[in-house]
Design brief:
Structural class: alpha/beta
Strand content: 15-25%
Number of domains: 2
Largest sheet: 6 strands, parallel
CATH architecture of the largest domain: 3-Layer(aba) Sandwich
Shape: elongated
Radius of gyration: 20 Å
Low-confidence stretches: none
Number of strands: 11
Strand order of the largest sheet: 2-1-3-4-5-6
Length: about 300
């Protein structure tokens, strides 16, 4: 079965979780290719229509799998190849984009949502499933804390907090994170920007906790990857985080209060130990998630090539 993945490269690269999902699907027998969208907003996406049509004529996919609502809108401008669209959160949580995503939900042969909250907002009537993006548990795993700190140039006694994104991402609410950490003595907040995948794993093992203060999320990879590293997590109630970290000792959900976030981080410092988050996240490894997606592919084109 031939799958054409349609996704954005507006950040300068394809999102790692999209690449990893495609790689795992390839391992399971799919022939995979990418069409990358350059351009922002609905007009920027729609300018890629002719290029996408040429790619379809060259590759002859059985299915187009679009990631994010605007990619799904572009993919559905043609009606020859069935489209599966995965919604990752920003395409549902933003009211303006939600209106377009609802059109995509209607046009797509099948829809995948990464969190129940997004399903509740979008209210699809049929042909949908809840499937969070998988975690690469081979990359993200527990490592020795001091070895990671030495490798990254951190002191062994420093109090370190890893923020969930770059400080210029407003949706991630960095101002609240900075305000909370400023209430703590001798504590440094690290911006997650410019690191490779292995380095992010090392960071998650080196720091005392990770911090996510987002206004909205889908099913954040940042939290799932931190869980795979058994790293303590302090987060606002965004996306499916509450469900993910429920009953994991050393992980906390906080309101949008710098004081309460700082208190949760102080508790993490006091506990001074890894969590058991990895055990809870193993059912979301890339292999199991890919198999669920494969089943959708088989149902969408049952008369095409067999897969797996």
């Amino acid at each position: 079965m031939k799958i054409l993945t349609v996704c954005s490269v507006n950040s300068g690269k394809i999102a790692p979780f999209v690449i990893e999902q495609a790689a795992t699907l390839k391992e399971k027998g799919c022939e995979m290719d990418f069409f990358t969208v350059e351009g922002k907003g609905i007009r920027g996406y729609l300018r890629n229509r002719e290029k996408l049509n040429r790619k379809i004529n060259e590759f002859h996919p059985d299915i187009i799998h679009a990631h994010y609502g605007l990619s799904g809108l572009l993919a559905n401008l043609q009606r020859k190849i069935p489209v599966i669209t995965t919604y990752h959160g920003s395409d549902i949580n933003d009211r303006k984009i939600l209106r377009l995503s609802k059109i995509v939900i209607f046009l797509s042969r099948f829809n995948i949502f990464v969190s129940q909250k997004n399903i509740d907002i979008a209210k699809p009537k049929k042909n949908y499933a809840l499937i969070p993006c998988g975690v690469n548990i081979d990359i993200f795993k527990p490592l020795n804390r001091n070895e990671c700190r030495n490798k990254l140039g951190f002191g062994e006694e420093e109090k370190l907090i890893l923020f969930s994104s770059s400080f210029d991402n407003r949706v991630k609410n960095p101002a609240l994170a900075k305000e909370a950490v400023e209430l703590l003595k001798n504590t440094r907040l690290i911006e997650l920007k410019g690191y490779g995948r292995q380095q992010v794993c090392e960071l998650m093992n080196a720091v005392d906790a990770v911090l996510m203060t987002s206004f909205t999320e889908g099913s954040p990879q940042f939290v799932k990857e931190a869980m795979a590293c058994n790293c303590p997590i302090v987060s606002t109630d965004a996306g499916d985080v509450k469900k993910l970290i429920f009953d994991v000792e050393g992980c906390f959900i906080c309101p949008f209060s710098a004081k309460e976030i700082a208190e949760a981080l102080q508790t993490v410092f006091f506990l001074n130990k890894k969590t058991a988050g990895r055990n809870k996240i193993l059912n979301l490894d890339n292999q199991q998630i890919a198999e669920k997606i494969m089943n959708i592919y088989r149902n969408v084109v049952p008369d095409r090539h067999s897969v797996g």
